[in-house]
Write a structure and sequence with these properties.
Aldehyde Dehydrogenase, Chain A, domain 1, single chain, 7-stranded mixed β-sheet, Aldehyde Dehydrogenase, Chain A, domain 2, 2 domains
């Protein structure tokens, strides 16, 4: 069997090989999953799914440190943040259990007119069918949990394709599910040999629900090729905007913004990227963020005191360097950073007033770069914040409730944070991109809802 090598983004060190899936392997996985779904006698009962997920959560907690170290090594997220990721993952699996226990269907009102007299109606939930999940590198364990655990909870057979850069965390989670009692055929991993095989997996008519986390270009292209009837959820990125009012508390706000923009080297789909600050404080905001950035330890993600790790690929670090240099050449003030520390490490960078047409201003940087723009009129700041074809999470920092409500009303986005950075998330809240940033709604309870069919029974009886 062919294999693919997994290497550490920090130093390129070899970690391990994983099996590469051929077209025949993908066909076998789809045929197995579809056969399970079509044979209702093979479906896992709800109590069994609850038992499996509950045990899986306990195993994750027991192996917290090892799982976090592996995720940090293959994905580059610093160990302290990877530990948080594993904790979130365990909580997410338990959330699946809570949702399945709590949601059993609905009663539809009957007997309210002549047509509905003598009838009772109710709904229950059934699995939608085969789930094909394609995941991203930046949260290699928790993203797999978000895509796979809801499929297990709803009783959907799932075929999962992890990011090629970070497949080991996916293998770890699926092995935990199997150890917890999930029959292997209910969750199968494929790492296709090439893009054509990946596309065939996604566009196969046996795929009932396509879950995708990754680039907008790839996600929207695959959505256009889905078989008729297939549902999908796409989670892409943005260039998250922040409105920073003159009355905002600098001491409270700046550490949050620095964390939200530089966490995981900015490789987060809702990372703080564009901070529109009142001209009275814009310089202070940029200088304050720079001071915080300069104190951050950049380096080996497996060390307990590292705060900013590597960029996932050298080519991505090259791109970030190019975009920053372009912005500085165009007139941006480089407040701090703006340099490579190694092939994979890029210094946390703060730019003041980059040109509006620079790529750091109108495209997702996906790197440790925060841009600060001064404004004299808040309505103008809203207009600039909303000017891009992407919209996801946004934020406002202020001590005035009317300013907060004004920002909530005027900012595009699906979630507006008040005095919190744009990357805030808990896994049971709705998480969805608008416009080109995504399609459908993520978050454990919402994904579970999307992976089910609400099936109604109408019962007529002369006794009623």
């Amino acid at each position: 069997m062919a294999e693919k090598a997994v290497t550490a983004p920090f130093d390129g060190a070899f970690i391990q090989n994983v099996p590469a899936a051929s077209a025949d392997d993908v066909e076998k996985a789809l045929a197995t999953a579809y056969g399970l779904f079509r044979d209702r006698s093979s479906w896992l009962p709800k109590h069994r799914r609850i038992e499996i997920l509950g045990k899986a959560a306990e195993i994750i907690k027991e192996r917290r440190e090892d799982l976090a170290m592996q995720a940090a090594r293959e994905g580059g997220k610093p160990l302290p943040d990877s530990l948080v990721e594993i904790d979130r993952a365990a909580d997410g699996v338990e959330n699946c259990v809570e949702v399945i226990r709590a949601e059993g269907g609905n009663v539809i009102n009957m007997g309210v007119n002549a047509a509905s007299a003598g009838r009772v109606a109710f709904t229950q939930f059934e699995p939608i069918g085969v789930v094909v999940a394609v995941s991203a590198f930046n949260h290699p364990f928790n993203l797999i949990v978000h895509q796979v655990a809801p499929a297990v909870a709803t009783g959907c057979p799932v075929v999962v394709k992890p990011a090629e850069a970070t497949p080991i965390s996916c293998f770890n989670f699926v092995e935990i599910l199997r150890e917890a009692g999930l029959p292997p055929e209910w969750c199968q991993i494929v790492v296709p040999e090439n893009r054509e095989i990946s596309t065939a997996l996604v566009t196969d008519p046996r795929n009932a629900f396509f879950s995708f986390i990754g680039s907008a270009k790839v996600g929207w292209s695959l959505r256009s090729q889905l078989a008729p009837g297939a549902r999908c959820a796409l989670e892409h990125g943005g260039a998250a905007p922040v409105i920073f009012a003159a009355d905002a508390d600098l001491d409270d706000s700046l550490p949050r913004l620095a964390k939200g923009g530089l966490y995981h080297a900015g490789q987060v789909c809702v990372s703080v990227q564009r901070v529109f600050a009142d001209q009275a404080v814009a310089g202070n905001v940029a200088d304050g963020l720079a001071a915080l950035a300069e104190k951050m330890k950049v380096g080996d993600p497996t060390l307990p005191d590292t705060e900013v790790g590597p960029i996932i690929k050298k080519s991505e670090a090259d791109r970030i360097e190019e975009w920053v240099n372009e912005a500085v050449s165009g007139g941006a003030k480089l407040v701090t950073g703006g340099k490579r520390l190694s092939d994979s490490l890029y210094a946390p960078t703060i730019l003041l007033n980059p040109p509006a047409d620079a790529r750091v201003s109108n495209m997702e940087i996906f790197g440790p770069v925060i841009c600060v723009y001064s404004y004299s009129d808040m309505d103008e700041a809203f207009e600039r914040a909303n000017a891009l074809p992407v919209a996801f999470q946004a934020a406002v920092f202020t001590q005035n409730i009317d300013t907060a409500l004004r920002a909530y009303k005027n900012l595009d986005g699906t979630a507006i944070m008040v005095n919190e950075h744009t990357a805030f998330r808990v896994d049971w809240m709705p998480f969805a991109g608008a416009r080109q940033s995504g399609h459908g709604v993520g978050g454990i309870p919402y994904t579970i809802h999307e992976m089910q069919i609400e099936k109604m029974m109408v019962l007529r009886s002369n006794v009623l």
